[in-house]
Amino acid sequence: MSKTELVTAETETILLQPISPPAPIASIPRRSSGPDLPAPFPEPSVHDAESALPPESAVSTAQRWNDPPRNKYRVLSCFFAFLVYGMNDGAPGAMVPLFEKYYHLPHSIVSLMFLSPMVGCVLASFTSNRLHAIAGRRGVALTATGAYVLAYLGISQHPPFPVVVCLLVLTGFGSGLMNGSWNSWFGGLVQGSTLLGFLHGFWGAGATLSPILISRIATKVENWWIFYCLMMSLACLACIAVTTSFWDDTGSGFRQRNATPSPNAQAGTLKVLKNRVTLTFSLFMVLYVGSEVTIGGWLLTFMMNVRNGSPTASSLATSGFWIGLTAGRFGLGWITGYVGEKVMVTIYLLSAIGLELGVWFGKEFAVSAVMAALVGVSIGMLMPSGIRVMTKLLPPEKHLVSVGFATAFAVSGSAVFPFAVGALAEAYGVEVLQPVALALFGLQLVLWLFISRGKFKV
Question: What InterPro entries does the record tag this protein with (predicted)?
């Protein structure tokens, strides 16, 4: 810059010195749409396992199991409801020999008791979000447990078998609603992986208790429907507990939290069918629940017919499987959360495949019983881990509809695969249980490896 003369009124000449360029100053880069100012840190456009994890300095705003205080009652009531839910799922396997004897039916027909709940589960997967928008978790709790009460009331009257099959649709509907609502709620809490392990641990405890109770009732009383009278009483208690604990969780509150403008949330439910995360995890959970309930449902018959065990010993072996599953969920929840679901689920599935081979080729009754119990331990955390990873990958506003759909739809796996084993057992014998279980575990492993390496756009 050249010098410039400035002449004042008194004709005094002042020389202005050139101004040197300003020193560069630090500035915070800002986002710009111009091509020459790219964003300094590209923002991730996908929700994957790494980008979903918060930074170390982040402060969680999620609720805890004991904060606010009413959550303590909610957690305990859900634990009790899942205990009843587990007893519901653990009953069909123990009832198979009793129904065959009482109704004089073959394996293939009795297997319909595994298939009919699928209708209710699928219905629940498409109505859960709408019901939440209308009545909140209070309405869901009342509807889910109320469906159990009605079903058990009907079955306790020991009606014709086709009526039993139809009533079991109601249990599937209740199970689907409970899975969707409470899995998503627990998954969003602080330490969700551990809490989900406990929640499903109570389910396992109920599934453990059912074969023992049914065996005792069949031996001492000889009237299998007494079990369903007991179940009706427990379902009534669960209905009171969960409905009152979520009494202030109404439909209007749900719509405000999830920005749902109207009670019609069906479009949101249908939208999840285009979500890769939801569809992939739905398939994984269908395979898992199918393997779990198939083993638990047909293990008693397998141990009696193939391993030549007595009814009491075979019932104890079945309970051993559910005890192992329960122990895995209570004992491995913290370890899974600490090490990471990605690694631990892979280890669990590899262990399950090896142990299931031991059940198949261990010809002694005791060997098969011990291996079956260890299979239960190894698969206990699979579903809670899958739910927890879903809550990490998906934004909070999608938790209910996506997790709800995946878990409710997954319960259909507990219907399809046990029914298939029953149909195959009619033609080839109940020995088909082991290869079917191995195939399900293998498919889960392949799918989990894809999940743990893939990046999903949500």
Answer: MFS, MFS_dom, MFS_trans_sf, MFS_Transporter
